[in-house]
Design the sequence.
């Protein structure tokens, strides 16, 4: 008898747990309890402990899941040939993640993060690979020759701040925000 269905079921449970944890952390911050996550995920507390030994491990799982999604957006943006399209894809992809995850990220930033978790996010914000988009844009004559790629990276990454996203999200849709930011940033970058 094959064990593949059990593995698929275990993966589905783990994803349900992480999705539920994001919701509970968004509502309760560091006071999120394992039992609340289990109830929201529709699994037993034991199932959570089989996947995550402690609450910190669960929070760490949320961080890692978020980072995987963020790096995937970065990689998709880097894979595009057109540097202007890359900027738009990066912003659009980040905002899609922030739509779901920014309440939890804001709560975690406000105190539920350990120093280790904060440092994992700092690694993402300090990642320089995204600068390839700006180098390519300069080389193609699409972006200004005098463009500081370090500052362009900082502008692009800081545009995707979860706290600012939440504050603006009350007034505009995610799509309006993504389109508006893309327009503003490309106006600053274009040759």
Sequence:
């Amino acid at each position: 008898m094959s064990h593949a269905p059990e593995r698929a079921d275990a993966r589905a449970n783990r994803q349900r747990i992480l999705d539920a944890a994001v919701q509970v952390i968004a509502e309760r911050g560091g006071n999120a309890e394992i039992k609340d996550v289990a109830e929201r995920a529709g699994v037993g507390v034991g199932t959570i402990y089989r996947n995550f030994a402690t609450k910190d491990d669960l929070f760490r799982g949320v961080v890692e899941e978020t980072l995987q999604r963020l790096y995937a957006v970065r990689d998709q943006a880097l894979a595009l040939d057109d540097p202007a399209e890359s900027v738009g894809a990066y912003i659009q992809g980040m905002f899609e993640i922030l739509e779901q995850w920014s309440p939890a990220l804001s709560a975690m930033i406000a105190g539920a993060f350990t120093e280790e978790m904060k440092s994992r996010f700092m690694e993402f914000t300090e990642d320089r690979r995204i600068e390839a988009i700006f180098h390519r844009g300069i080389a193609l004559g699409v972006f200004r020759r005098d463009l500081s790629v370090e500052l362009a990276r900082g502008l692009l990454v800081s545009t995707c701040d979860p706290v600012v996203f939440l504050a603006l999200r009350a007034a505009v849709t995610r799509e309006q925000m993504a389109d508006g930011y893309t327009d503003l940033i490309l106006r600053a970058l274009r040759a």
Summary: The chain is about 80% helix and 0% strand. The chain has a mean pLDDT of 89. The longest helix spans residues 83-112.
